[in-house]
Design brief:
- It contains five helices and 13 strands.
- The N and C termini lie far apart (about 40 Å).
- It is of the alpha+beta class.
- Strands 2, 3, 4, 7, 8, 9, 10, 11, 12 and 13 form a ten-stranded mixed beta sheet that branches.
Length: about 230
C-alpha cells in the first residue's frame, strides 16, 4: 500500500506549471503494465482527476489496476469498454518522490491530488484516422475516436515552486521523476512494438506502441473493426 500524500493548500504550495510534454502512447496487456511498474520499482500511482477521501489515495494503484484489467478484457472480447470509467481511472500520475504531490482540501472530507514537482502523467489515450494525410492522430475526441491504452508524458520545462525559476528537465538538473521517465522510455522501446495499420488500400505507419501480449486479440478491437482498420 502506497503512502498518503501530505495535505496542503494553494497558498502554501502553488500548482505546478509545466510545458513541452514528451508523450508516449501505448496499449499494454495488464500483465505487461504490471511488468512495467515492477521494472520502475513500483512507483506510487495516484488518480488525480476526481475528488477522493484521504484514506482512498493509498489504494489508487489497486483501483487503477482493476479498471485497466476490465478495460483490456472488454477490448479483447470485441466489446466497447466503459469509457467513462477510463476517463476517471486513467487520469493518474506516477512518482517516486512523495514530495512531488500533495492533497488540496476542496470540500469537507474530499481532496484533489495536485502536482508540486514534475511527474509522469497518465491519460486515457484516444486516436483517430485522418484520410486527408493518411495518419493516426492522438488525443482526438468525438464519435470517430478509437481508444488505445494510455498516454504517458513528462514535461521538458516547468516553473519551480517557491522560486518561480523556469527550469528544464535534463540529466544535469535531474529533477524529480526524470530518471523514472527515462527508464520508462527504455522499457517501452524494448518491450513493445511500433504499430502499423491497414485502412482500405492505405498502410498507416505510426509512433503508437503495442504490447506483444495484445497481438493475439488486437484485431477484435470493436472500434477498429467498425472503421475497417486492422493492425498489420
Amino acid at each position: 500500500m502506497q503512502a498518503i500524500p501530505p495535505i496542503s493548500t494553494p497558498q502554501q504550495k502553488p500548482v505546478l506549471q509545466a510545458s513541452k510534454w514528451t508523450a508516449l502512447q501505448v496499449l499494454l496487456a495488464p500483465e505487461e503494465f504490471n511488468s512495467l511498474l515492477e521494472h520502475l520499482t513500483q512507483p506510487s500511482l495516484y488518480l488525480c482527476g476526481s475528488l477522493w477521501q484521504k484514506d482512498e489515495f493509498a489504494n489508487h494503484s489497486v483501483l487503477f489496476s482493476q479498471a485497466y484489467n476490465d478495460y483490456i478484457v472488454a477490448l479483447s472480447q470485441g466489446e466497447q469498454p466503459d469509457l467513462a470509467k477510463c476517463r476517471t481511472f486513467f487520469s493518474a500520475c506516477l512518482s517516486t518522490d512523495d514530495d512531488s504531490v500533495y492533497l488540496q482540501d476542496v470540500q469537507k472530507g474530499e481532496f484533489l491530488l495536485r502536482p508540486n514537482h514534475p511527474l509522469i502523467q497518465i491519460q486515457h489515450h484516444t486516436m483517430s484516422y485522418s484520410p486527408y494525410d493518411n495518419k493516426m492522430h492522438s488525443m482526438v475526441f468525438g464519435k470517430e475516436a478509437i481508444t488505445w491504452g494510455v498516454q504517458l508524458s513528462y514535461p521538458q520545462m516547468y516553473i519551480e515552486s517557491g522560486t518561480g525559476r523556469v527550469c528544464q528537465t535534463t540529466e544535469e538538473d535531474n529533477p524529480p521523476n526524470y530518471s523514472l521517465f527515462k527508464t520508462l522510455q527504455r522499457w517501452i522501446r524494448h518491450n513493445t512494438l511500433p504499430t502499423s495499420f491497414q485502412t482500405g488500400e492505405h498502410t498507416v505507419r505510426s509512433s503508437l506502441r503495442l504490447g506483444k501480449e495484445c497481438l493475439p486479440w488486437i484485431n477484435n478491437h470493436c472500434q477498429l473493426k467498425a472503421q475497417n482498420i486492422q493492425v498489420i
